[in-house]
Amino acid sequence: MTRRTAHASRGESPHRAGEGSAGSTAVAFTAAAIALGNASSASAAVGQLLVYLHVAVKQRAFQGLLSAGLPGVRATAVGRIADFDRAIQEAPDAVLTLPIVLAEKGLSPAVRGAMRGSTEERYALVGIGASPDPSRVAKVGALDILGREGSNRFVRSLVGAQAHVERVTKFEDLLPLLQMQRVEAVLLPSRLISDLRAASRLPLTERELQATVGLPAVASTGPNASSVLGAIRKLPKDTSKLFGVDEWP
Description:
By secondary structure, the protein is α/β, with parallel strands linked by helices. It contains nine helices and ten strands. The chain has two domains: 22-115 and 214-243, 3-Layer(aba) Sandwich (D-Maltodextrin-Binding Protein, domain 2), CATH 3.40.190; 120-213, 3-Layer(aba) Sandwich (D-Maltodextrin-Binding Protein, domain 2), CATH 3.40.190.10.
C-alpha cells in the first residue's frame, strides 16, 4: 500500500529550488536518459529484464539509463512491490533486485553485484539533531521493499522489534517523514545518505548499523537469461553505481 506524505514543517520543502544539488542532478539524469533511451530503443530486444530497485533519481530517468546501457535488452524498471509482483508474471528472462526480494519470491541469484569487492553493504539510521540509537528508536521510516509484513520484518531485523515502521515507496518521500516528525529516524543504505543531505538543510545525523544487507543481484528466470546477464556485466558504471554496484564478479 502506498503511503502519501505531505511536504511540510520547519519552514522548508525538500523540493525548494536551489536547495542542494539533488534537483539539478535529477533533471540532468532525466534529460540524458531520455535521449539515450530513445536512441537505443530501435535495436531489437534479445531478452527481457525486470528491475525492482529504489534509487535517488526519478523512475523515468532510471528507466532511460537502463535502456541506454543495456542495448538489445528490453528493461522494465518498477518502484513498487505490487508492480513487481505483476510484472514478474509476464515471465522476464532475468530479474535485478535485492537478494532479500529474490529470496521472498523463491529465486536464487545467478550474479551478485559488488562494490569495492564486497557483495554486502551497510545501512544507517538518519535523524535530526542527536544521532539515532537503534535500540531506542520507536518510529522508523523506510522504503517499502517487501510490502507491509516483509518490510516490517526487514526493518526490525536491523533496528529491533520495538520499531514501528512507516513505509514509503520512493526515496524522495523519506525526508518528509523527518520534516513532519512522523518518525524519529529513517533507515536507508549508507550510500544514499549524501543524496538525502543534498535535499535538505536540516541538521541530519546518522548512525551506521553493524548488520549488512546484500547488494542488488540478478536471478535467471527465462530462456534468454544468459544474454541479459552478459549485457548487465557491461552496464556503465555510472548507472550501476546508482544502486550501489561497481562490478559484477
